[in-house]
């Protein structure tokens, strides 16, 4: 698999984005021939290798097809005019996910399944020192509730955090939540009633699927590209067909695929959805390795986007500090928050506010962005080399290497049973998450979500990666009568 520098990588992504926009605008229709590699490299002033890489990625995502002697064509299934929109359905995942999640917490396993950040950084030590100081101070204070919208100092500090994300917000617009999970839950409760239909990305972070299940909501799963996110043609079809109460989307460094929705598509999403409320889940938004498109919240001028974020991925998920910018739903959600918990986490909110005042968070962010980028490169290289050492795996998988966050998505041939791979990996001392956790109908049973947050270039990790490749290879080993061709 081609290895690329971050610079060439962002260029090929730009080519992909340009092509996706042209397809969504109908410049190229289903079955149309795309420009040759030479033509496109001249049109976009990029190298031929960049175009080849972009075409390979789009082909792997089944958006385009290579035709012998006639080059690349737009795949039939990406067009608005064809295909039936996915149907709304209830989610049934709570029973299996509890078991799987408990296993990812087992500290004896190599943690490829965990979506928690690496906490071995000096800033985290300072943060916990601050929590210690605050806890001593709090013992001298009378007991009280810290009512919504939350600690004033913390909300003031979060103004700068939002600014770095390209979002301008006043302290009074910020609602502190118990992690992004509570923020998304509050947003869903404010916008829906049991039985309503919510549009989500497919695949979708299982925590969001669990919320829909527990609130009795139906999901319409809109297929999403592991590169550029939700397919807006499919979304348009679904909106024509079903009454949708809200759209829940995770557009930047998506969990599980790492996709990033391009800026033009974000704008198009706002146009397409008219007045339907959008919940933007941006928990990985600050972990990009380079520039990222503007948040959907910052592009909207109708106050119907609810922005949800937290410090769970950038600092520590144990803090349970999240926040909402709720636009026109702000006062409604603030009342719900009050009823939900009468305020929460006094100690943590004041400690995090003091920590943010030190200015160490910004430097920490830069450090972890570089750290995860390096991990991504080394982990993906090691896994690719291990998989490619089995001749029958060559060209039969696609490892999506994201431009941010610390999760990557491995897509294997359609008949792969990742639930079985998950069991075998666990027995071999490796945690990972099977694709079936990220959908309602096992559509991604052939995929795995892998984390490189804790990756180290050590014998333990090298052996773990080799063991995982061996498990996959043995699962997909052709019997002597079978062909090894990629289907
Ligand atoms: C996409 C996504 N949204 C929301 C959450 C919940 O985050 P928090 O820990 O802040 O509740 C997670 C956690 O993994 C996530 O990956």
Characterization of this structure:
The protein is globular, with a radius of gyration of 23 Å. It folds into three domains: 6-78, Winged helix-like DNA-binding domain superfamily/Winged helix DNA-binding domain (Arc Repressor Mutant, subunit A); 92-119 and 369-476, Aspartate Aminotransferase, domain 1 (Alpha-Beta Complex); 122-362, Type I PLP-dependent aspartate aminotransferase-like (Major domain) (Aspartate Aminotransferase, domain 2). The chain has 16 helices and 17 strands. It has helices spanning 6-24, 37-44, 48-60, 94-104, 122-138, 152-164, 179-191, 206-214, 232-241, 263-272, 296-299, 330-341, 346-357, 360-388, 418-427, 459-476; strands at 64-67, 71-74, 89-90, 110-111, 174-178, 197-202, 218-225, 229-230, 246-249, 278-281, 305-310, 321-325, 398-400, 407-411, 430-431, 433-434, 447-451. Strands 3, 5, 6, 7, 8, 9, 10, 11 and 12 form a nine-stranded mixed β-sheet that branches. With 487 residues, it is of the alpha/beta class. 43% of the residues lie in helices and 14% in strands. The structure holds pyridoxal-5'-phosphate (PLP). Pyridoxal-5'-phosphate is lined by residues 115, 179-181, 205, 207, 250, 255, 281, 283, 310, 312, 317, 322.
